[in-house]
From TrEMBL:
The keyword Cell membrane applies. The chain crosses the membrane at residues 43-67, 79-101, 122-148, 160-182, 189-209, 254-274. It comes from the Bacteria. Belongs to the ABC-2 integral membrane protein family. This is Transport permease protein. It is a multi-pass membrane protein. InterPro entries: ABC2_TM (IPR013525), ABC2_TM_bact-type (IPR047817), ABC_2_transport (IPR000412), Nod_factor_ABC_transporter (IPR051784). One of its GO terms (molecular function) is ABC-type transporter activity. GO terms for biological process: response to antibiotic. Its main location: membrane. The keyword Lyase does not apply. Residues 42-280 form the ABC transmembrane type-2 domain. Pfam families: ABC2_membrane.
Length: 282
């Protein structure tokens, strides 16, 4: 493995080159963030409260007022859960952006910079830790969903595939959170910036109501929404109701469209985040 010497103004430091070194450094950063979550359990607890409340409110308060085409009185409960799962993994963006902004303001990033580690590993490690927390949140949420009556009907392996799609989307969106956290000046601003754009993204979709109930021009936006593709793919894999049939291409190939959107978002925003991080710590 090669090493590159960089001068930071004080003393040269050796940075381990290669993918293996970057992954090792990323895992060190990830473990640091995971330990922080265990020491501050409020982060996890309050992260769980919102999705659980959404499940209970939509199921017991609004569920009776929303009809799913071709479904019975229990259909909305089954229809809803894929949308709640997807909303949960994407709303983790706010925590990711606030965490990175906090590290920047407290000077932790400067301390990382003085260490012999790849710069990209700071962001990779952070996003991996966020992915682990998101996976735990989805697990708890799935248990709550089972308690209120949600079921998957296409077998265990396809259900695992659906959860994998959800985590892939969540990991891709965590890179958006990383870019936001690097671009604002305070954790409070990062939290607001990380949430405000998610509301139209999640509600102009098929997550909570069938797209057929929307105006015609808005239906096209909803069908091509990357959030809608993942929700539709999860419903198909779970064997849950998907709403009214549609000839929309993204909905007819939802699994592949979901994977494609997630990989595209990850590629674009990981590149932008690493570039922003390098300029911010130059």
């Amino acid at each position: 493995m090669t090493a590159t010497t960089l001068t930071t103004g004080a003393a040269p430091r050796q940075i381990r080159g290669g993918v293996v070194g970057m992954l090792r450094d990323s895992w060190v950063v990830a473990k640091r963030n995971l330990r922080r979550m265990t020491r501050i359990p409020e982060i996890v607890v309050f992260g769980l409260m919102q999705p659980v409340m959404f499940v209970l409110l939509f199921t017991y308060v609004m569920g009776g007022a929303i009809a799913v085409p071709g479904g019975d009185s229990n259909a909305y409960k089954q229809y809803l859960m894929a949308g709640i799962f997807a909303q949960t993994v994407t709303f983790a963006v706010a925590g990711a952006s606030a965490g990175i902004a906090e590290d920047m303001t407290k000077g932790l990033v400067d301390r990382f910079r003085s260490l012999p580690m790849a710069r990209s590993s700071v962001l990779v490690g952070r996003t991996i830790a966020d992915l682990v927390q998101t996976a735990f949140t989805v697990l708890v949420l799935a248990i709550v969903a089972f308690i209120v009556g949600w079921r998957f009907n296409n077998g265990f392996l396809k259900a695992l595939g659906a959860f994998a799609l959800l985590l892939l989307l969540g990991y891709a969106f965590s890179w958006i959170g990383a870019l936001i956290g690097l671009s604002v000046r305070s954790p409070e601003a990062a939290t607001s910036a990380g949430l405000i754009w998610l509301f139209p993204l999640t509600f102009v979709s098929n997550a909570f109501v069938p797209v057929s109930s929307m105006p015609g021009w808005l239906q096209a936006v909803a069908y091509w929404n990357p959030f809608s593709a993942t929700v539709q793919a999860c419903r198909e894999l779970f064997g849950n109701p998907t709403g009214a049939p549609t000839n929309s291409w993204p909905m007819e190939h939802a699994v592949w469209v979901s994977i494609g959107w997630s990989l595209l978002i990850m590629a674009v925003f990981s590149y932008l985040s690493v570039r922003k991080y390098r300029s911010a710590t130059a």
